[in-house]
Write a structure and sequence with these properties.
About 50% of the residues lie in helices and about 20% in strands. It is of the alpha+beta class. The protein folds into 2 domains: about 20-45 and about 165-200; about 50-160, no CATH class. A 5-stranded mixed β-barrel has the order 1-2-3-5-4. The protein is elongated and about 85 Å long. It is a multi-pass membrane protein. Pfam families: CaKB. This is KCMB1 protein. Keywords: Glycoprotein, Ion channel, Ion transport, Membrane, Transmembrane, Transmembrane helix, Transport.
């Protein structure tokens, strides 16, 4: 009687462990799919892939401009902000080009190097842009990214999705997938050992 209870409990534990392993594998597959349709296209779309050194030539704050209204957004999302323009000397080619914060900055407003998020306090936006401009004037040389193919003549300060960020995004689903497969393998080994013991 006790032996039957132990066998039943063992089977229930194996079933639960097997469901856990399959659930982890399924969740990791969903995460792979989500990363594949969101982050990977932005990573492959970016042409600014080569890192070099940029030297600041000038960093000026122009008159206020309006953040261009993105497609499908409301009119109240348009807000004015000082336009920071940073021109740098590209070490790789020696050209004088305009610097943008990220790939998204160029798409939102190609006239400005930095596009702030919408803030209610315009003084805070102005102070932030002035701080960024003073930092560029203070630190003359810094790493930046350019397009080696020459499609884009401008440069960006940082990529939205660098190689390390992409690898980190794939790290968690990979660990989950490995853990799920390991649980399934251990359950199958346990079942095989149980059948072998019973047969003997």
């Amino acid at each position: 009687m006790l032996g039957k209870k132990l066998v039943t409990a063992q089977k229930r534990g194996e079933t639960r462990a097997l469901c856990l392993g399959l659930g982890m594998v399924a969740c990791s597959m969903m995460m792979y799919f989500f990363i594949g349709i969101t982050i990977v296209p932005f990573y492959t779309k970016s042409v600014w892939t080569t890192e070099t050194v940029c030297k600041v030539l000038k960093a000026n704050i122009k008159d206020k401009v309006f953040c261009p209204n993105s497609e499908g957004s409301e009119d109240e999302e348009i807000f004015p902000y000082p336009c920071l323009q940073v021109w740098v000397n590209l070490t790789a080619s020696g050209q004088e080009v305009m610097l943008y914060q990220t790939e998204d900055t160029l798409e939102r407003n190609p006239k400005c190097s930095y596009v702030p998020d919408k803030l209610e306090d315009s003084k805070e936006v102005k102070a932030r842009i002035e701080t960024i401009a003073s930092n560029f004037r203070k630190y003359q040389s810094f790493p930046c990214y350019y397009d080696p193919g020459g499609t884009q003549t401008n440069v960006i300060l940082s990529r939205l999705y660098p190689s390390k960020g992409l690898l980190f995004a794939f790290l968690w689903p990979t660990l989950m997938f490995t853990g799920g497969c390991l649980i399934i393998v251990l359950v199958k080994i346990s079942q095989y050992v149980s059948v072998l013991s019973a047969w003997q």
